[in-house]
Amino acid sequence: MWNWQPLGHGVESLFLVTPLTWWINFGVHIYQYKGFQIDAGPLRTLRYTSRAEALFITHTHEDHAGGASRLSLPIFTGKEAAYLLQNPPPLPLYRRLVWGTVKPVPAQAAERVGSFFLVPTPGHSPEHVIVYDEETGVVFGGDLFLSVKANLASPGFNVQALIHSLKKVIELAPRRFFCAHAGAVEEPVKALKAKVDFLELTRDQALLLKRKGLRPSEIRDRLFGGESAWALLSGGIMSRLRFVYALLDES
Predict the structure, then answer these.
(1) What does R_g of the chain's alpha carbons equal in angstroms?
(2) pTM as predicted
(3) Contacts of 229 (CB under 8 A, 6+ apart)
(4) Of 172, 207, 213, nearest to 189 (Cα)?
(5) How far apart are CA 47 and CA 189, in angstroms?
(6) Per the count of CB atoms within 10 A, which of 81, 85, 129, 192 is most buried?
(7) What one-character-per-residue DSSP string does 18-74 give?
(8) pLDDT in tens, 3-30
(9) 117 close to 136: Cβ distance less than 8 angstroms
(10) Do residues 220 and 240 touch, judged by C-beta distance below 8 A?
């Protein structure tokens, strides 16, 4: 049984891993706050007890939404995510093995629930939202942040949309920011601005190398020193090469 850990300011966290991620200490943070739970974690993890009265889902990736089918809670999310949670698409084999599946759940689309706003923040995925408490300035960011220099991408990733979403959240001036993989982010506005700077600079570098005639794989090697092990594990579905293609997309 997992134990919720107090983080202060009324926020509690649970760090969930699966049989294939525990050995590298890679998992996902879910949160409880003001009677709500933020994200459900993966299906392939040990069961946990939630004291929440309702559930927010930031996006439909299986490490965030897979556990929703185990919880008898009302589910609130964005419009696109609500449809996908009601009609989950098939997942590649490696994702099912690592995290488990996403089963259909009766999610409700919402823009606001009490003092919480579900703010559309596409980029990491098209349906991504963050959960913002206007009373306290607390933001639960899902996979918006990850880290300043995160350089892996999967299908649906869009650099231009992510930059726009980051700037939108910066305008909210969050006092506290909780990331699904990085945990509590210190000095959130400063961290989010640093990520915008990294993305814009790296995009400009990638486009310059493209104009010089380098292929995407050569740009990846020049900027990031080669491919990530995740590309091999995922069969190329999650990779630095996909990140480079996203950087080069000027549409």
Answers:
(1) 18
(2) 0.96
(3) none
(4) 172
(5) 34
(6) 129
(7) -TTTGGGT--EEEEEETTEEE----SSS-------SEEE-S---HHHHGGGGG--S-
(8) 899 999 999 999 999 998 888 888 999 9
(9) no
(10) yes
For residues 81-102, b (16+ Cβ closer than 10 Å) or e, as one string?
Answer: bbebbeebeebeeebbebbbeb
Q: Which two tokens stand for residue 195?
A: 């990520």
100 contact partners, CB below 8 Å, separation of at least 6: 18, 42, 43, 44, 45, 62, 66
Residues 6+ apart with CB under 8 A from 69: 43, 102, 103, 104, 105
**Blockwise average pLDDT, block size 10, the chain, 251 residues:** 88 95 90 98 95 98 97 97 97 92 98 98 98 98 98 97 98 98 97 98 98 98 96 90 95 71
- What's the burial of 196, exposed, middle or buried (CB within 10 Å: 0-12/13-18/19+)? middle
